[in-house]
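Project outcomes to date are best conveyed with an example. Our students and postdoctoral researchers have been running inverse folding experiments weekly, and each run begins with a structure described purely in tokens. The record below, which covers 78 residues, was selected by the lab manager from last quarter's runs and is presented without edits.
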């Protein structure tokens, strides 16, 4: 099994995701964690916030918000 790394990635680089990235992250979390997806995203937001990485914290907060909005929309359709 080969391990690949992205040589251009650096922890101090801007990690601002595109709306498409946020939607993909939300879909993965919903698929893997179901009703807990927003909580998982909030965990990552808190983790990165405590570590001083505001960009990643903001990104994960956006994922959590999107997951909650999608859940609300699904419930409204019922």
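After processing, the design step wrote out the following sequence:
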């Amino acid at each position: 099994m080969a391990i690949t790394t992205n040589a251009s990635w650096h922890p101090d680089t801007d990690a601002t995701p595109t709306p498409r990235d946020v939607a993909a992250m939300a879909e993965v979390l919903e698929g893997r964690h179901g009703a807990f997806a927003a909580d998982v995203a909030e965990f990552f937001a808190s983790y990165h916030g405590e570590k001083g990485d505001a960009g990643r914290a903001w990104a994960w907060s956006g994922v959590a918000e999107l997951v909650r909005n999608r859940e609300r929309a699904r419930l409204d359709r019922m």
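The mean pLDDT is 86. Residues 63 and 69 are 10 Å apart (CA to CA). The training component of this project remains on track.
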